[in-house]
Amino acid sequence: MKQLSQHRIGSGLLLLRLLVGWIFLSEGIQKFLFPAALGAGRFEKIGIPAPHFMAPFVGATEIVCGTLLILGFFTIFAVWPLLIVILVAITTTKGPLLLKQGFWAAMHEGRTDFCMIVGLLAIALLGAGPFSLDRRQHGE
Questions:
Q1: Measured at the alpha carbon of residue 116, what is the angle toward residues 113 and 117, in degrees to the nearest 5?
Q2: Please, which pLDDT band fits residue 137 given cuts at 50, 70 and 90?
Q3: For the segment 52-73, what is each residue's pLDDT rounded down to a tens digit?
Q4: By the 8 A CB rule, do 51 and 58 touch?
Q5: How far apart, in whole angstroms, are the C-alpha atoms of residue 74 and residue 115?
Q6: CA distance 107 to 42
């Protein structure tokens, strides 16, 4: 079996960082653009305490850490807050759905969330890769 080249591995890691980072960046921006539907209003609806503080805090975390993932800069430090964000999102939205509508409804609605967890864990395990600012700045 032919061994994967470093270029192909690096390209795969770049695509993974772009995918995961873009989704978090986009979701963070939308919390500010559409606060009633996706920001404080949504947080209040699902029972997050202090929604007018927590929604902008989570949105800013998603924007900053999503951007860091895209750039591959301080990548490992960007992964952990996003893991917390996505685990809270699953607990507060997919948990109740699981109890009300069952396993398959929760799996359907949670597909992006679960992909984000797996993507974040892969990035944490594999690092930012050669096409990253981490590699250039810190010799990762």
A1: 90
A2: confident
A3: 999 999 999 999 999 999 999 9
A4: no
A5: 21
A6: 20
For tokens 């609806």, the residue is 45
Measured CA to CA, the distance from residue 64 to residue 21 in angstroms comes to 10
- The CA-atom distances, in angstroms, between 16 and each of 11, 40, 43, 120, 121 are 9, 29, 28, 9, 11
pTM: 0.92
Spell out the domain ranges in the chain: 6-135
CA-nearest of 80, 75, 87 to 113 is: 87
Query: What does each C-alpha distance from 95 to 84, 91, 108, 110 come to in angstroms?
Result: 15, 5, 13, 10
